[in-house]
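INFO  loader      accepted 1 record
INFO  loader      residues=123
INFO  predictor   begin
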Amino acid sequence: MQTRLLLGSTLLTMLASAAEPRTLYFERETAEEATRVALRIEGEKVTGSQAWVPKKGHGARGYLEGTLDDEGLVHVLHHYTIESSEQVEEAIFKLEGDTLLVGSGELVEEASFNFPDAPWVLF
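INFO  predictor   done
INFO  writer      dumping tokens
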């Protein structure tokens, strides 16, 4: 129940300020890697960038484009380059307060990597 209240509060804040674009930055760093995400939200439109930088080896960098839905979920396509290979995969984020939750689940390869059962994505 508390999660729904937080999500509802976040959603109301986003809807109330839909006329004003917002830019949000998130970073998670461990001893092995760092992940950085920047999101620009303009109404329902979401753009941004994401970088995965391991301490050793190749990383992935790219851009995000998608939408913010009525439930406060951010649905994007992540266009990125890893080891000189261009890839596209679906990503689903959830904004909860000042935290960005990253959805996880099985991706299926079609023209890009997609979640076949988006309602079952875990955060």
